[in-house]
Specification:
The protein is of the alpha+beta class. The chain has nine helices and twelve strands.
């Protein structure tokens, strides 16, 4: 059996899960690497720039109050010496605003940075802030100019002069973006490489599962000797061994059941066959005794006993014949001897041979001209069993219909009785089934409907039992034309 391909089968789900884990791993690693590298790049540029800017400001010798000309020279000199690249430098002293550009102030320098610079006016370390303006990242720095008082504490006093520097971080951001691009471009090959172990792993997992499915399918088709080669010590190997043990036990149980069934069939067949000879003699004797009882040569008690023995012997003969017939079906020895016949004529002969011609008992409705290829003897048994069952257990009149339905003909037998109880319907074709467990005897053998079912199946047809809406049971036989 070839496994059916499923778009989202177990193999696909395993591979997708493996790739998802690989993708999450790559993404997490890339994110952590990006974060660490970005911080390292920006901090390196930030520390370099802030250290250089602080040295430049601390090395100034500014007279207070500073003149605009001298202050302009200082900011331009500091701007030229910017590290790691050129700065834009601004100086603020009271209301004086001087810059190394054509604009006295910068919109990049935020109020927060100015407030921080004034709060830390006595600190030589300065402050910084990273700002994004119009999509461009900037590093802004603020360092106050101090003058030293040479006392025992060597203290520094604020001058009120604050220098600001603005440096673009576009190169650092470009380096970070390059790292992101490299990580993204490297993820696809990584996933492609991860696909190989994913396929190998899924194959290793699915091979025993597929073998188990094939083995289960073979067992379902009757190959009970199916076994799975189990190796290793993982859970799938344990499952394979459990399957083998269960299959072996099932094979032993089924073999024993088949042997018991064969013995039972052989016993029924042998008993039925052995009973035929003595029954033939008993039937001959009972016929003679029936004639004497009918002639009045026997007293009344003897005559009743003779009629009872004759009836029971007849029932036994019918039971033996039915047992032999059902044994042939069980042994697959039943054969069809088909001939092309007129279906209506066959049904009519069945009714006439059994004297079911009284319109108050049986009402026929035949569509003329229906011809089919069937075994007349076995079809006669089918019709006789259904009509006889309707007369015994249903209510007269019994309606027998024959008509065409596509490429099949239908034989329908309906009665006017109480119908079949819904709990009984699934079992009406079972052998020796009794709708009323208290009823131990019946006029039939208990095998009539079972034989009917087997004969219909032998013709390639179907038979169904049901109830009519207006009341009464109905049996419907469909056979190919």
């Amino acid at each position: 059996m070839r496994p059916r391909r499923r778009p989202f089968g177990l193999r696909t789900r395993l591979v997708l899960a493996f790739l998802l884990v690989a993708a999450v791993g790559c993404g997490t690693t890339a994110a952590l690497t990006y974060r660490a590298a970005r911080n390292a790049i920006l901090e390196q540029a930030q520390n370099t720039a802030l250290s250089a800017f602080r040295e430049q400001v601390q090395g100034l010798n500014t007279a207070l109050p500073p003149s605009a000309e001298s202050l302009g020279d200082q900011v331009r000199r500091i701007a030229r010496q910017g590290k790691p690249r050129t700065w834009r430098v601004y100086a603020e002293y009271g209301s004086v605003r001087i810059s190394s550009t054509d604009r006295p102030t910068s919109s990049v320098i935020t109020p927060e940075l100015r407030a921080r610079a004034h709060e830390n006016a006595e600190s030589p370390h300065g402050s910084f802030q990273r700002v994004v303006k119009n999509g461009t990242p900037y590093l802004t720095m603020a360092v106050p100019a101090l003058f030293h008082v040479f006392t025992a504490e060597d203290a520094a006093r604020p001058t009120g002069l604050v220098f600001y520097a603005v440096m673009e971080l576009d190169e650092e951001e470009a380096n970070v973006e390059a790292m992101v691009t490299a990580a993204r471009d490297g993820a696809l090959p990584a996933l492609a490489v991860a696909l190989i172990p994913a396929l190998i792993a899924s194959r290793g997992v699915l091979r025993p599962v597929r073998e188990l499915g094939i083995a289960a399918h073979n067992m379902g088709r009757g190959r009970l000797d199916t076994r799975i080669h189990a190796k290793g010590s993982d859970e799938l190997s344990d499952l394979a061994r459990t399957f083998n043990e269960s299959a072996a036990e099932l094979e032993r149980s089924v073999a024993e059941l088949r042997r018991a069934e064969a013995r039972a069939r052989r016993f029924a067949s042998d008993v039925s066959h052995e009973l035929r000879t003595p029954l033939a003699g008993m039937l001959a004797v009972t016929e003679v005794l029936d004639e004497d009882a009918a002639a009045g040569t026997l007293d009344s008690d003897t005559a009743r006993a003779v009629r009872l023995v004759s009836a029971e012997t007849g029932r036994l003969a019918v039971l033996v014949e039915d047992l032999m017939e059902i044994s042939r079906f069980d042994a697959r020895a039943a054969e069809l001897h088909t001939d092309e016949v007129d279906v209506a004529d066959c049904v009519r002969k069945t009714l006439q041979n059994r004297h079911w011609t009284d319109p108050e008992s049986v009402v026929p409705y035949f569509t003329p001209g229906i011809r089919a290829r069937l075994d007349p003897r076995r079809f006669d048994v089918v019709v006789a069993n259904l009509v006889g069952n309707a007369l015994r257990h249903g209510g007269a009149p019994v309606t027998v219909r024959v008509y065409e339905e596509g490429d099949r003909f239908v034989t329908e037998v309906a009665d006017q009785g109480p119908g079949i109880h819904p709990d009984v319907l699934p079992h009406v074709f079972d052998r020796f089934y009794k709708a009323d467990p208290a009823r131990t005897r019946s006029a039939g053998s208990g095998l009539g409907l079972a034989i009917t079912l087997e004969n219909v199946r032998l013709h390639g047809g179907t038979v169904e039992a049901g109830n009519r809406p207006e009341g009464g049971a109905v049996f419907t036989v469909r056979m190919p034309l």
